[in-house]
């Protein structure tokens, strides 16, 4: 478990699966920028049974409050087979839990964990055009806007732009992003 000020990041338990499955498939909670992924429940459970949603290329952690209430999920995945980087994605399930700093703290905690535990040089976040909340998260954690991948993301029937944000190990080590408590 990775402990922060307001939230914790923890591994997913089998007892979390019913609520997580429902949240994962709730189009309203996913919002307009996190595409709906329809996964049959047996496939969802099979993936969990295989690796607990944790492998060398992809790791998912729950974002929970101090009472272990499920707030959201954060995902870390290998960005490319040729790069020394990972990509983060995240979302807070309940609209009433948004705009409280949970996603920002989750990203800070996971960034610190990754750079402390793994030999990686770069963490990136790809943000669909218009997702101002995720832009604020990336900027609060001191990710650098590198540019725009034009028409790189198919969402809601459109090819939209993706904003590319990154944080390098040397920037993190210089204290640009470090959380006060990990």
TrEMBL record:
- Supply the PROSITE patterns for this chain: GNAT (PS51186)
**Domain N-acetyltransferase: where?**
7-171
GO CC, alphabetical: cytoplasm
Q: Which InterPro entries match?
A: Acyl_CoA_acyltransferase, GNAT_dom, Ribosomal_N-acetyltransferase
Pfam families reported in the protein's UniProt record: Acetyltransf_3
What are the recorded GO MF terms, alphabetically?
Answer: protein N-terminal-serine acetyltransferase activity; protein-N-terminal-alanine acetyltransferase activity
Keywords from the UniProt entry: Transferase
Query: What's the protein name?
Result: Ribosomal N-acetyltransferase YdaF
Species source reads Aquicella siphonis
